[in-house]
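INTERNAL AUDIT FORM
Audit reference: QA-55
Scope: verify that the stored structure record matches its stored sequence.
Auditor: D.O.
Record contents follow.
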Amino acid sequence: RLCKHAKGLGVPVIINPDAHSLRGLADISYGVMAARKGWLEAPDVLNSLDATALSALL
């Protein structure tokens, strides 16, 4: 629900696994699932952008 709201407001989102070990990096899949459920697309997620697109936002 908050993903849809953020997208509607034009607020970029960052997906973070909050990993405390290498094994925890796999937890990013939960963030990706939540983003998909919230209808986010790659341009809505800051850490999916390339360096050029990211620097254009900054």
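Auditor finding: record pair retrieved intact. The chain has a mean pLDDT of 93.
Action required: none
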